[in-house]
Amino acid sequence: MKKIVSSVIATLALAASLNAADYYATVNGEKITKEDLEIVLRNPNIDFDILPKERKDKAIEQAIEKKLLTNAALKSGVEKDKSYKEALEKIKKDLALEIWMQNQFKAIKVTDKEQKDYYNNNKERFKQPATLEARHILLENEADAKDVIKLLDKASNKKDEFIKLAAEKSKGPTASKGGYLGKFSEDRMVPEFSAGAKALNAGEYSKAPVKTQFGYHVIYLESKEPAKTLEFDVIKNKIKEFLLQDKFRKIISDKAEKLKKEAKIVIK
């Protein structure tokens, strides 16, 4: 088998004359396709064509061995084995259900009107809270926080001074970043902090310390985006997906209930 594997891999030098999307090797005339390689790679999202040569060779060797072993298993008469037949029947039933459900889903339609009606009747679901961008200086006590505010009051460049003081005095991991917290929705922070940040305009800092469970904060607001409702065109594809899934669940549920009523069911 090793000789067969080696000779097949060696023929890959001819790949330039072949369509890579067609096949990558042959085993006794059977093609090794991208689908075969996806199986041995165990991830359909991996692009085989951009893998390193060593990984490609290994995947092709695995696919070849799998093809050879599969054919050997079939020639052995395994299809006559009782456990094979039982497993095959189970697979057939599971596959029948899967294909049937896929067909049910494909038959479902969602109109533009249904999407727009859902959007108009459920606008509260598409509201985005205000987005804040802020820095903070976190201190252990109120007196220290007030001292920081006094230093900011005296500074000519408030932001630069804030960043400097955050690096020097703030406790916690944001000190090394000048107290920068990034952008966040107003409901992501503890209520006291969010309220303190919301009360500021962009470029302003806290005039009084903001107390939270973590300590005393001095906040500098970088920017603020008001709460808004997402436009229909932005969200319509997600609405369609939701409505398709919702209709599908209802169809399957209704069908199951109907079949239960018609069936003789005994639960021990």
UniProtKB/TrEMBL annotation:
Annotated Pfam families: Rotamase_2
Lineage: superkingdom: Bacteria
GO MF annotation: an example: peptidyl-prolyl cis-trans isomerase activity
Keyword Secreted attached: no
Residue ranges occupied by any PpiC domain in the UniProt entry: 129-223
Signal peptide: 1-20
Protein known as: Peptidylprolyl isomerase
